[in-house]
Write a structure and sequence with these properties.
It contains nine helices and two strands; from the N terminus they run ααβαααααβαα. By secondary structure, the protein is mostly helical.
């Protein structure tokens, strides 16, 4: 009888894992082709009564100064890594060990995975799921798609999501017409958007 229970539990665990893999892979494949409709931070802001502003734009409609500024500010090795920058993670861990304000070593890919699929917060479960979704998007999406999703869902102020909404809010222009200085200012918002 004990063997039957263990066998049943094992089958349920295997089925649950297979379902999780299938659902998460399907979700990532869908977002490869369609705009991300909603994120946890957007939902949080809406629930709290904050007006949420977001206008999805193709990456081709965003001035290249934005992507250059974001890579310079957030993830200098974006084009070279496969989702994880282990050097940046080690440097962040060393800084954090000295005390003071905690800093992360997350890449643009990790931030995109977190923003598109997960909730904000710090826990081992969320970080594990972030790693899983990072591997998936790095496998299924192109770097261009990762950047496109990132520039459209990143929080860039209270209730302001994406570079197009930020461009209109801060500079009364479109993301395609931002100057290099304006693009750099938007990139500077990202570590502490609120």
């Amino acid at each position: 009888m004990g063997t039957n229970i263990i066998g049943t539990i094992f089958r349920w665990l295997v089925r649950g894992a297979a379902l999780f893999v299938a659902v998460s892979l399907g979700w990532v494949i869908a977002y490869r082709f369609v705009p991300v409709p909603l994120t946890w931070p957007m939902a949080r802001d809406a629930i709290e009564g904050r007006h949420v502003t977001r206008d999805w734009v193709a990456l081709s409609e965003v001035t290249p100064a934005v992507t250059r500024s974001l890579i310079a500010a957030e993830d200098a090795r974006f084009c070279a890594h496969n989702g994880f920058d282990f050097e940046a993670m080690q440097a962040a861990a060393a800084r954090n060990a000295k005390g003071g304000k905690l800093r992360g070593g997350s890449t643009i890919s990790q931030q995109t995975a977190k923003n598109a699929f997960l909730w904000p917060g710090r826990s081992y479960l969320r970080k594990g799921l972030e790693a899983w979704f990072t591997v998936l998007i790095e496998t299924v999406w192109s770097k261009k798609r990762i950047m496109e999703v990132y520039v459209n869902i990143a929080e860039m102020g209270p209730g302001i999501y994406g570079v197009e909404a930020a461009s209109h809010h801060y500079f009364d222009t479109s993301a395609g017409k931002l100057s290099p200085v304006q693009a750099a200012r938007i990139a500077a918002i990202l570590p502490q958007p609120i």
